[in-house]
Amino acid sequence: MPRAQPLALLQGSLDVRVLKALLTGPQHGYGITVWIRACTDGELEIEDGALYQALHRLEHKGWVQAAWGVSDNNRRARYYKLTRAGRKRLAAETRKWEATVRVISRVLKPRRAT
Q1: Which of these, 2, 56, 65, 86, is most buried using a 10 Å CB contact count?
Q2: Sheet of 76-82: strands edge to edge?
Q3: Rg (CA), the chain
Q4: CB under 8 Å to 9, separation ≥6 — which residues?
């Protein structure tokens, strides 16, 4: 059976996916991409440009901190970690996404009128 094409980014979901990936611990950009790909069985992909724009945006907002480190293959890499404010933001965004999913599900599968 042919593999499905990766899903397009849902508008507004990149930041929350990056924050969630960092909940597991500090990671460099490639590690974030691999984590998201693994969690979604390859159905969600992130373009490098979009990922690094998101990381810079999240850093500017104080939701992640960045520091230089050495990757597993002995290369210099920028590692990102979630801040306390980032954890709070992730919790708030998760609640919003869960509410959105519930509402959209009601539209897609309406209850029968009695």
Answers
A1: 86
A2: 27-28, 76-82, 64-70
A3: 17
A4: 44, 46, 50
Task: Reply yes or no on whether the pLDDT at 30 is more than 70.
Answer: yes
Among the listed residues 60, 62, 110, 57, the one whose alpha carbon sits nearest the alpha carbon of residue 86: 62
Q: Which domains does the chain have, with CATH numbers?
A: 14-108 (1.10.10.10)
Separation of alpha carbons 47 and 14, rounded Å: 11
Count other C-beta atoms under 10 Å from residue 13's C-beta.
13
Mean pLDDT of 2-19: 68
pTM above 0.85, yes or no: no
Q: How far is CA 111 from CA 97, 98, 100, 101, 105, in A?
A: 21, 19, 17, 16, 10
Task: Give helix 29-39 / helix 14-22 axis angle, nearest 10°.
Answer: 100
Tokens (6 digits) for 94: 């998760």
Is the per-residue pLDDT at 4 higher than 80?
A: no
